[in-house]
From TrEMBL:
InterPro entries tied to this protein: Dehydroquinate_synthase, DHQ_synth_AroB, DHQ_synth_fam, DHQS/DOIS_N, DHQS_C
A cellular component annotation (GO) from this entry: cytoplasm
Function statement: Catalyzes the conversion of 3-deoxy-D-arabino-heptulosonate 7-phosphate (DAHP) to dehydroquinate (DHQ).
Molecular function as annotated in GO: 3-dehydroquinate synthase activity; metal ion binding; nucleotide binding
Residue ranges of domain 3-dehydroquinate synthase N-terminal in the record: 63-174
Record keywords, A-Z: Cobalt, Lyase, Metal-binding, NAD, Nucleotide-binding, Zinc
Ranges where the 3-dehydroquinate synthase C-terminal domain occurs: 176-319
Keyword Lipid metabolism annotated: no
Protein name: 3-dehydroquinate synthase
Protein encoded by which gene: aroB
Cofactor entry: Co(2+); Zn(2+); NAD(+)
Amino acid sequence: MTSISTQDYTIHFNETGYKALNEHLKAVRYSKVFILADENTNMDCVPFVLGNIDTEIEYDILEIEPGEEQKNLDICLGLWETLSEYGADRKSVIINIGGGVITDLGGFVASTYKRGIPFINIPTSLLAMVDASIGGKTGVDLGHLKNQIGVINTPELIVVDTSFLATLPQLEMRSGLAEMLKHGLIFDEDYWNRLQDLSASTLADLDGLIYESIIIKKNIVAQDPTEQGVRKTLNYGHTIGHAIESYFLEHSEYKRLLHGEAIAIGMIMETYLSIKYLDFSAEEGKKIKSVFKSIYGHVTILDSDQAPIIELLKYDKKNEHGNINFVLLEAIGKPKVNCIVDNNSIIEAFEFYN
């Protein structure tokens, strides 16, 4: 796959990625390399990456426990203290090897340590490859509220090695697929149609679909790096989806939802709102719900859960002047930002999902 250049960095793939990484390390001559990974990626992915790095620069591995629960300021504090203790200076670099938690967290830690040191992303999950590691969003959660603290800051480069997908549980693959489906709904109806049934797809087919998703996100971000307009369309399904994800994180009696599982629910519900507010095709809306239900099944959301989930919407990052702003669809591939809906309609959207 051909490398993809953005204004600030380049996304490289597979073997080409390691060649580009080695050339970059040789050219920049960092004082020290710090590799951030969780327990899983440190075991499954870091040894392979190290086997493909050709450098004499000293490195240390920083390992954290896996899971969204680690994406918080306490973990950041521990990492900042470790970097300081291990002599990281402004010529050091952090290489983030992992899923979206690692790339979000590691990018934020790097961007704020000594007012900013460079970082490189090597995403190992489908979600991180097509979404989290691209576009420069870094950050952590505030309690159970998703991504409330962070900065937009781009990596030096990204290496996408799709062989790491073989290490992923099926649930994690499904989680990443939700973001790819979203790219189809907001940008390309043909892409959406091709993603609906992957049962006959080969690994080469999947590589091609991943590549298309990265191109879609890259093109949207290039138009609006700081999310003032068109980049907001990437949040389709996320206004409600993040609130549901946060609610399930906060309530231990419920099984934790992966990001993609929550966003799938959000996309079904925001499709209903699109039907009600933007005259999106009701027939198409039923098809969209059917596609997501066939992939992700059904999650029980009780009537008693709905009001506290709606309350969490006020923390969404797209909100302005006290308004909760939704991204809705006029048609597949034609999103509209800054849509305001009432709470009764959101309750109706829960009913549509159920």
